[in-house]
Structure formats: structure tokens, C-alpha cells
């Protein structure tokens, strides 16, 4: 009789769980690039409609791309928000207001 073994610790970080995407990696990367090229002028839903996926699917691809980039940099998460927050803080500090 065959026995199945399970990883009782749960999925490890960086391990994909679930089914494989029906969309090729190049298509997903291109969709993410289109969203980023819009630089906040278009919503996930608007860009997603152009490429034929849902807004949630595109949002997921963008998040995955951010996580992969963070792992490649050796950090735990996206750095963009932290950098943006630091620049706002520096501007407020330079003005001497201390208010962010």
C-alpha cells in the first residue's frame, strides 16, 4: 500500500501552492510592465481589461513580481513604500516643521 507524506509545517516562503497559471510568464510580465508604465494613472481593472484578465489577477501578478524583486534584492518586502515615506519625512524635516 502506498502512503502519502505531507509537509505538516505548511508551505514554505517562496513555495507556490495551487494550480499552475494558464497564462505564460512572458504575458504576465508584459501585463505587469503595462500597469507599471501607467505610473498610477490607470487602475488595475483598466489595465487588466486591456489585456483580458481581471483586476484581481493583475494585482496578484504585480504583488508576486514585487515579492520576487524583493527576494532578488535580499529584502523581505517591497522597498518603494519605505523610500517614499522617507522622502516625505526628509522634506518635512528640511522645512523644520517636523510634521509629516
Automatic annotation (TrEMBL):
Pfam families per the UniProt record, alphabetical: HTH_Tnp_1
InterPro entries according to UniProt: Homeodomain-like_sf, Transposase_8
Name this polypeptide is given: Transposase
Source organism per UniProt: Streptomyces violaceolatus
Amino acid at each position: 500500500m502506498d502512503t502519502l507524506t505531507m509537509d505538516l509545517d505548511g508551505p514554505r516562503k517562496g513555495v507556490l501552492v495551487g494550480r499552475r497559471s494558464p497564462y505564460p510568464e512572458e504575458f504576465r510580465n508584459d501585463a505587469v510592465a503595462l500597469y507599471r508604465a501607467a505610473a498610477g494613472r490607470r487602475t488595475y481593472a483598466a489595465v487588466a481589461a486591456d489585456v483580458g484578465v481581471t483586476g484581481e489577477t493583475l494585482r496578484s501578478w504585480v504583488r508576486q513580481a514585487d515579492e520576487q524583486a524583493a527576494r532578488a534584492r535580499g529584502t523581505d518586502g517591497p522597498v518603494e513604500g519605505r523610500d517614499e515615506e522617507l522622502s516625505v519625512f526628509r522634506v518635512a524635516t528640511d522645512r523644520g516643521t517636523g510634521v509629516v
